[in-house]
């Protein structure tokens, strides 16, 4: 049985109890060792298979500047994938210059486009109308468009971002028109980007996707004479959330993608190959440490925690599964069928439904795994509950990287 990469942490009840005592619960905890190892795995696989490549970490997964700084110091070539002015700001705080960033918005306001234009980042547009709005601000030297190839893939229907039901991207039948519009307006250099879904664990999907992207770049070149400076495969690289799921082998993934990419440009100057990974970098580096606040025997048995859907939104949002363990005894026999919930006044406030779980008592510590991506990033203040603290650990050394929010913080900007 393959152990979770943070299994050693949840076995260490002394460390977990110390963190809970020092920082309180609920608490997001990140492993620096795992974070940098994930980055190395990606970078080494790309370095083996591509002459020119660029990794743009997707800040939407987790935008804590301390984590970005750690990654940037470890891999100095690291860029960022940003989807809002706030994420451009977070990239800068983390030491990533805006010229190393790609900005992919959707249905952008003029203020969004102005921020992207002023930053000097690579602008990737979701729609031809976005380009028309951008021209009211200025004509950039370079532009890319997000391709919707007409298909997509993802763990849940809600996170499939390609295909007819997706709100994202330029349809493949209109992609040439997008680049013609930009070229006629005076844009000189071009890239192309495609992101069709999140959480993908099929290692063969990405080579099929790059084939479709290259098919479209061929048509663009034949019709308009445009050669791309870079081609971005986007992200979507998944992580195992359940026992029995096989992690992506990045050596295999990028060997297959590289074979297609390099053969296609055998006689031509190769563009740079870009990716925009999020959860594959930070997802399994994080756990949510929480405490049992109550146990209720009703028509079902409920284990109540001091973390709920306001702390971790993914299960309520689209039924996502997270492994949950009792700290100190993660292998304890699971004999009770329970729902695990928080303190929010919504019946959708469930972190697990009909889950076999060991016997627990009030005050016991519980670890919710794989919360490094879209955990704190989606945390909110419903029921006026402040957001939790974040801690980075290296061995048994810990560092507070975000203070716990207070009730006073929530109302700081209110005029009372």
Write the layout of secondary structure elements.
Layout: H1 7-11, H2 13-23, E1 27-31, H3 32-49, E2 53-58, H4 65-74, E3 79-82, H5 85-93, E4 101-104, H6 110-119, E5 122-125, H7 128-135, E6 142-148, E7 170-171, H8 175-184, E8 189-193, H9 205-224, E9 230-232, H10 250-264, E10 272-275, H11 279-282, E11 286-297, E12 301-305, H12 314-318, E13 324-326, E14 336-341, E15 350-357, E16 365-369, E17 389-394, E18 397-402, H13 407-410
Parallel strand pairs: 1-17, 2-3, 2-10, 3-4, 4-5, 5-6, 6-7, 6-8, 8-9, 9-10, 12-14
Antiparallel strand pairs: 1-11, 11-12, 11-16, 13-16, 14-15, 17-18
Helix pairs in contact: 3-4, 3-10, 8-9, 9-10
